[in-house]
Specification:
Elements lengths: L1 H11 L2 H38 L6 H4 L3 E4 L6 E4 L7 E6 L7 H4 L3 E3 L7 E4 L8 E5 L7 H4 L3 E4 L11 E3 L8 E6 L6 E12 L11 E4 L3 E6 L6 E2 L2 E2 L7 E4 L5 E7 L1 E8 L7 E2 L11 E4 L3 E2 L2 E4 L4
Parallel strand pairs: 10-20, 10-21
Antiparallel strand pairs: 1-3, 2-3, 4-6, 5-6, 7-9, 8-9, 10-11, 10-16, 12-15, 12-17, 13-14, 14-18, 17-18, 17-19
């Protein structure tokens, strides 16, 4: 009887260890299960966030234009704004409506302004350059006299070395200067002669051309507007110097220090000496030769 009781006690003594091991396994399993649930929830939330994410717009789209693959469709003009790779930015052209540039009476050009025109910051439908014909009035009185305007960070602007100030107006914060005289020296005057012909009214057509011209370039003493007959200078006096331009329209000659007018013979104007540029002081095609300078000449027979 005693032996039986001891055996029963021994069996009863193993139960707590088994229970502890079972509890540990259960808790470990619950922890793993909880971790899996957390990972699944986080993945689900991430995917929902991507679904609700607003697509990133390109510069073109932010400006209310459209991006197309490769090229713009008919009725659209290409703009220089960023799209995705392989796409171009396009602006729908309103039928019959003029651009800001055209409303201002100016011309739109595909890439850049032609010779004799300045680019203006106005919008063109095709995203090209808005151009305005350069006229004498666009320059300051100083520049019209053949001098230069210089700016400075100093409160009172000053002319650079080897220049002297001239009493002519410039833009605000600038001073009018001319190079100091070097009377005992000769300088080179050079440039290009071109002739412009055809219908050059905006939009520019294919028959509007500006080409190099082979002709005589002549330098005379400073000539006033009163000595002109229209755009032509008719005089019995000979030039100080003259030379023919080459096939590229280029000419070059040496002239002593001084004030001059430069003319070219116009083959479509009875070979008379031509000039259509007058300075503020009334001098024709005026060059103040105080050092070597470039002076380009355009014979303009185009329709403007």
């Amino acid at each position: 009887m005693e032996k039986v009781v001891k055996k029963s006690a021994s069996i009863s003594g193993r139960s707590p260890k088994n229970n502890k091991k079972t509890i540990t396994l259960v808790l470990g399993g619950l922890a793993v299960l909880l971790l899996i649930i957390v990972v699944i929830v986080l993945i689900s939330l991430s995917q929902k966030g991507k679904e609700n994410e607003v697509p990133k717009l390109t510069t073109c789209e932010l400006n209310n234009y459209s991006c197309f693959n490769n090229s713009c469709p008919t009725g659209y003009a290409e703009l220089d704004m960023a799209c995705k790779s392989g796409q171009v930015c396009c602006n729908k052209i309103p039928v019959g409506e003029k651009s800001q540039c055209e409303k201002a009476g100016l011309g739109c050009y595909k890439t850049s302004c032609p010779f004799g025109y300045a680019e203006i910051d106005l919008f063109c439908w095709a995203g090209g350059a808005c151009c305005k014909k350069i006229v004498v009035e666009d320059r300051t009185k100083c520049e019209l006299q053949g001098f230069q305007c210089f700016g400075s960070i100093l409160p009172e602007p000053a002319c650079p070395m080897n220049y002297v100030s001239v009493n002519q107006s410039c833009s605000v914060g600038e001073i009018c200067c001319k190079e100091a005289p070097q009377k005992n020296k000769t300088f080179v005057i050079y440039g290009y002669v071109r002739i412009k012909e055809g219908d050059c009214m905006p939009p520019i057509g294919p028959n509007c051309t500006t080409t190099p011209l082979v002709t005589q370039v002549a330098v005379f003493p400073k000539t006033s507007e009163s000595q002109m007959s229209g755009s032509y200078f008719r005089t019995a006096a000979g030039p100080i110097n003259m030379i023919n331009s080459n096939e590229s329209g280029y000419y070059e000659m040496e002239i002593p220090y001084g004030d001059y007018s430069v003319f070219v013979k116009d083959p479509k104007g009875n070979n008379d000496y031509y000039c259509n540029t007058v300075t503020y002081g009334g001098a024709m095609c005026y060059v103040a030769l105080t050092n070597s300078k470039q002076f380009d000449i355009l014979i303009d027979h185009s329709t403007q």
